[in-house]
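Fig. S4 source data, part A: sequence.
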Amino acid sequence: MLQPTRCIYSVRRQQNMPLHDRIVPYLERAGLYHLARLNARWFWLDEPLVSGFIERWRPETHTFHMPFGECTITLQDVAYQLRLSVDGLPVSRCFTDFEKFIVEGKPAWEWFQELFGELPPQNKVKHYTVHFTWFHERFRVLPDDATEETVRIYARAYIMMLLSTQLFGDKSENRVHIWWLPFVARLDDMGSYSWGSTALA
């Protein structure tokens, strides 16, 4: 097992998005609470070390070529260090014709509005992504008197940001993909998926 991998995973800083106490139970049930804690407050990213590993990465063999030999990130590393489930249902985000992949044939943005109570402005939308700042500004502060349904909406938003910016971030690092809608629509089922094996893949 590769020991120094704590700095290799593509864990992004989530721009100080507060972790409200009332959404923690949803993160725990989804198996993502530990990942939510890996941010600038609890996690220090050694960027020179990451750069060193990147220089030694060989994509043709999926290994790091180190002075002491070859090594790679294993499923055990992901399970141990990120504490993500490696058992369970497969996570698939490769939906063909995503807009039609909706319960009862509902358009994706209509489903988005049902789950979050509103749509982002058009200048924050690009294809099937929403700019991180909209989520950050809209869901940063959970009202003290929030109903349980409002808490669920905030939990969905936090998980969407967590998946898009920390676990499965792309080069932009500032877009939240709506292909996670089928997962956050069923918050109570999220813990049944193998997030660890998907992150490793």
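Fig. S4 source data, part B ends here. Confidence is low (pLDDT under 50) at residues 1-14.
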